[in-house]
Amino acid sequence: MTFASIGIMASCLIIMCSVALIAMNLEYNLDALMAENEFLAYVDENLTDEEGEELTGQIEAIDNVAEVHYITREEALDDYVGDLEDDSLYRDLPASVLRGRFSIRVNDIEQLQDTIEQVRQVEGVVKISAALDVADGFMTMRNVTVVIALLMVVVLVIVSLFIISNAIKLATSSREGEIAIMKMVGATNSFVRWPFVIEGILLGVGSALLAFLVQWGVYQLLVQAVNVYSHVQLINMIPFEQLRMPMLITFGGIGLIVGVLGSLITIRKFLRV
Amino acid sequence: MIQFTNVKKTYDSNLTEALHDISFVIEDGEFVFLVGPSGSGKSTILKLITAEERITSGGILVGDYDLATLKPRKIPYLRRTLGVVFQDFRLIENRTVRGNLEFVMRVVGSSNKTIRERIPYVLDLVGLSEKAECFPNELSGGEQQRVAIARALVNNPKTIIADEPTGNLDPERSYELMCLLEKINQLGTTMLVVTHERDLVNCFNKRVISIDNGRVISDMENGLYDYETI
Asked: What's the CATH fold of domain B1-81+158-225?
């Protein structure tokens, strides 16, 4: 039963951790994608490129702005024409038909709307072009992932508690006679309790260690597979080295808490003699 | 000393009144038989003394403990003043005779020295020195019950409560066992023995408290098992 309990509980922890890891990696990739998210702020067409570029300092001073790059009219035209397959029509177009613009990257995509408003306030900026829908989409996706991961973790912690509690219940029922004798000769509750709490801790922490090792192996294999098949680096995975300590501490912590709680809950009814 | 004063006990589960206004006093060093038919309330009295059950009204004193107001965390300390012997022995099967005694001494935190000194003394007292390393299933019923008595005695309680201790023994072994309880009593331990065995009770000429329908129907020094005729 002990091995079965450790196996089942380790499985629970692995599922729990896998969900958390998927969520973390999704967030990691989304963050990377969101970091690419930038918006354009067009400057007044009456300003020269030099005058426009002078606004850089003001925009940089805004809180959430990570990076500001001024695109001159010439550069903007080159970009525009370069994207077209047949550029004969535009080849002689003067750069002055376009406005100078800032390409602005933000630190926190969730504050994008506020940042846009602040940039809009800068004198000389006349228009903003931002893909707010995309940013919203990313945030919704991230929030949904986090909520699902949290729900799964809660459910699996409860399942683990149940497993530990059952394992302890079996252990206690086989020693019910001993417990009754202990109580009858005057054992205090803590004296009766501690062997079972230690058993719970061993079960919990043992399962946590097993789960950690399995998770480590599987994750490394996944990282290798992703690196081999994802030549274009579409998906990036968080390196395990970054996860090792937090994961070990979390696994150990959950194992310990579930072990102690599971045994305490189970032993309680045997102490009512 | 065990003192019951107007004790009433009603079980919550079926609202049965198990004891009606019971009063008696057992002084230190006494040997008392508690007799009565099944369902008369004998077991309830024992459960109240060991604080397995709490009284509904009245008062019980066991030594220095007032059971009406006893806090749950004090119950273990009350029980350390009592030794209990059951009809079905309740020995731990995977421990030797010595192991069973050592187990209950460890429970109350006895030192290694005390354990080393006390176990041979108690085993000698119950006549089982030769069987110290035997497991319970290697012993006869009488021997197992003597181990149970040794276990009740090993923590040096003031009172031993024996619940039908001869219920599973033949008459000869029952008599020997009762002699052993009498010997322990003579060494100063108060003895409360619940029994059905009319012949034994009549043979030992001790104080007899008869219970029926949750009431004390007789309480006599040098009494007989005669509640049916009262």
From this structure: Rossmann fold (3.40.50)
